[in-house]
Each structure stands twice: as C-alpha cells, then as structure tokens.
Give the backbone structure.
Amino acid sequence: MKYRLDSGRLEERFAEWKPAYTKAEAIAEANRCLYCSDAPCITACPTHIDIPTFIKKIASENVAGSARTILSANVLGYSCARVCPVEVLCVGKCVYNQWGRAPIQIGKLQRFAVETAWNEGARGLFPKPLPATGKKVALVGAGPASVAAAAQLALAGHKAVVYEKGALPGGLNTLGIAPYKMQASDALDEIEWVADLELVEFRCGVEVVERVSGDGQVAASSLLEEYDAVFLAIGIGGDAMLGASAGAGPAERVVGATEWIERIKGDAAYRLPSNVERAVVIGGGNTALDAAHELRVLGVPEVYLVYRRSETEMSGYAHELSAARKDGVKLVENRAPLSYAVENGELRGLNVAHASAGRPVEGTAELFPADFIVVAIGQDRARHTQLARLFPGVELDAKGRVVVDPATHRTGNRKVWSGGDCVNGGKEVVNAVEHAKIAVRDICNTLNGAHHG
Ligand SMILES: Cc1cc2nc3c(=O)[nH]c(=O)nc-3n(C[C@H](O)[C@H](O)[C@H](O)COP(=O)(O)OP(=O)(O)OC[C@H]3O[C@@H](n4cnc5c(N)ncnc54)[C@H](O)[C@@H]3O)c2cc1C
Ligand code: SF4
C-alpha cells in the first residue's frame, strides 16, 4: 500500500530544523554516551525505550540491531525520534545536563538508527508475527494510537482493521506536526511498514457513525457485533473558535489552527490569501506556537501571538516559544480577544481588551490590526463526545475524556479499550504509543483467555 500526496504543498517549503546525522556524526555522538546503569532517560521516555542499549549498538555499527531495540519498545520510533519534545523528555533528563554540558541528542540518534536501517533495507526490524489466531479487532481512528495498536495486534496474530474518516492514515502525526520537524510524506512512509503487515488493514474514508446513511460509513453497533474487541482512538476533534459574540470574519482570513495546518501539510492547492502582512494567532499552547512559527517561516512579515494570560502561564513549551521568537514571532501577553473587526466584508483585525487573570478589563478595548487570524484556543469536543457515547458503557469525565482503567486502558464497556488524545485530553505521539501498548497487552490477554472479559 502506498499513500501518496500531491506535490506543491506549502509544507515542502520548510527546511528541517534538526537535520539527520551523517554516520560519522552519529557514531561520534553515540560514543559520548556514558551508558548509565540506571539511565534516567529511560524513565523519562513514556515508552521506556532502552536508550543506552540502542546507542551502544550505533557505536558498534550494528544499526539494524539498534533499530530493533527501538522498535521493540515503540513501533513508531521513527516519528517519535523526530517529533518528541525531547527537551522535556529523554534529553532533558540526560545526566550531562547536571554538569552544564550538552546532553546526548537521543532523538537524532534514534532517527539515525531507524532511518538508516530502513534505507538499507534491513529485514526483520519488527519481530516475526505470531500465527494468526482468527480473532479480529476494530480500531476507530487511524492516528498514532491506532497505528501503534494495529501493528502490535498483528504481531500478536490478531487481525486489526482500522477505520479512518479522513483520506489518509496517521491522524495529527501526518497532518498536524510542524513541517520543520517532520513532513506528512515521512509520517506516511512509516505507516507503510505497519500497513505491510499481513494482518493489518486500513479502511480510510470510512467514518464510524451512529446510523449509516450513505457510503463511507460504518455503524458503531456493527463493530461491537462483528469484532472481538474495539480500540477507540478518535483524538480530540476539530478547532474550537471564538464564541458567537465575536462575530464572523471572512472564512479565508479567519481560520482554526489545526484545520489550517492540515491544509499547509496536505492540500497542494492551498495558498495563503493575498497580501498577508500582519497575522495574529490567538492562544498560548503548542498548537498556537506552531501556527505562529509556521506563518513566519512562510514569509508573513509580522506575526503576533495574542495570549490572554502571561508568558509564565502559557501551556506551550518554553523551548518552542524561544525557537518561534528566534524566527521573529512576537508575544503579546495579557490581551483577551473580543471580536473580529470587519469593515465592508474586509478583515481589519482583532478587537482585544487588556486582561487580568485571563479576563478582559472593562474600558480597555482596542483594535489589534491584522489581515489574517488563526484561532488556536483548543478543541471542540462535541462531535467526538457524541461518538464515544455510541459505545454503551463507555464513560467520559467532566473534561470530555474517555475514562479507562489506567492499568489496562479498558473502558466501562468490556469489549472496548481506548487510548491517545481522547483519553489524556491531548499530549504527544509517544504517549499515544504507550497507551496502545498497555491496551494491546490487555486485549491480547483477554482474547487469548488469560483473563475473562
Ligand atoms: C498542531 C499540532 C501539532 C502537534 N505537534 C506534536 C509534536 O510536535 N510532537 C508530538 O509528539 N505531538 C504533537 N502533537 C500531538 C499529537 O499529534 C497527538 O498527541 C497524537 O496525534 C494523538 O494521536 P491519536 O491517535 O490519539 O489521535 P489523532 O492523531 O487525533 O487521530 C485520531 C484519528 O481519528 C479519526 N477519527 C475521529 N473520529 C472518527 C470517526 N468517527 N470515524 C473514523 N475515524 C475517526 C480522525 O480523523 C483522526 O485521524 C501535535 C498536535 C497538534 C494538534
Ligand atoms: S521515543 Fe521520544 S522520549 Fe522516548 S527515547 Fe525516543 S525521542 Fe526520547
């Protein structure tokens, strides 16, 4: 199976911010590793990759062995190497940091190992699949949680059928990651490894719904009837926008962040509207930081991040803010968005107020001029909440997250497991992979009769 994207996508204009190591660079970096016996980097990795072992294998030029060590703990070890916020995970915990010396570049070494083994056509990077059991599992959504779960189910001998409403697999790992970290085509190349496993089947363009009313749909109830287990990994839904009191701006100039990023990554026909000179991104999380940084790299002269609280309260990573600033993004703290300023159908900017503790202060409203606005204030969970409810017994918490037993990732429905963003409310790819590992272990125990459902 080959997933293809049209060329001419805006993301192709981005250069990589962490270019791949050459062999000599990788070996030199691997030789700096102290191979700590109680390595803190392993604990800091949500999938607990045996980092010192894979690094040692790079140093001894056993690259395929190194890739096997990585993939045995994390089947999406290639994507994770490129997209993990290593500064706050493995690399952030490297002992070199304590001595004021440069930490080992674990992500870059991980990429080197998997990419080199893959490019050299190394075989058997995944363990040999167990014989088919005849059991089958439906996976809802083809984001990293399901892709990782499908690979592990297939290796355990269970048929894994992944239903994805979009045209491409990979979820936000394909269509959300900032292009200077990884482009959609690389995410899709990795998925092909999984799609090539005999017991994995992707059914893209098929939405799981309550009642089928046309082509490209399958009913949630039929999945419960036809499969031995269901893995729910539907992510956290589309962009939340400002409320009705904000009015409406011209659609091509007021956009939701994830929808916009998806277009620059996946839609070869998409271009920014003409003459965008001054853009505003509303929000203080990582998606807002990504969108602002991407606008600058695309050549928008002035890009402002408008956040209703202070810099120290931002949920976005400090290292991402600092990288965005280096590329010219400006942060405007303590400004609450009020409404879009539109005159004769043309966007003039964003009406904002000074904010205290995130709330607008009366009498301080002013116009913040802008000709393009990206809204990055979180996700609208209504649709995905509705979907989760189609599986009787599946519960949601007050924040709309699917409730699971953390030890097994099983939901209140004995046949349904869940993982990824829909469970943790939106974290990282590596967390989705770890959820998949926990859930698959329990699904396998259940299907193999180790414990009763
Ligand atoms: C802009 C952005 C940038 C990010 N950057 C990073 C990063 O640099 N590093 C990092 O580690 N993480 C990053 N993340 C987070 C990461 O992408 C997510 O944590 C990860 O993709 C979650 O995986 P998932 O499988 O749970 O959900 P998703 O990736 O959201 O996938 C869910 C899938 O389910 C499908 N679906 C939903 N409903 C249905 C239905 N009814 N029927 C069929 N299919 C359905 C969706 O179409 C989607 O493909 C970023 C997220 C965003 C929004
Ligand atoms: S998966 Fe991510 S956190 Fe874990 S070792 Fe690799 S880069 Fe670090």
Remarks:
- Residues 136-237+381-447 form a domain with the FAD/NAD(P)-binding domain fold (CATH 3.50.50.60).
- Residues 83-84, 140-146, 163-166, 171-173, 176-178, 181, 207-208, 233-235, 258, 261, 287, 290, 387, 420-421, 427-430, 432 surround flavin-adenine dinucleotide (ligand 1) (CB under 6 Å).
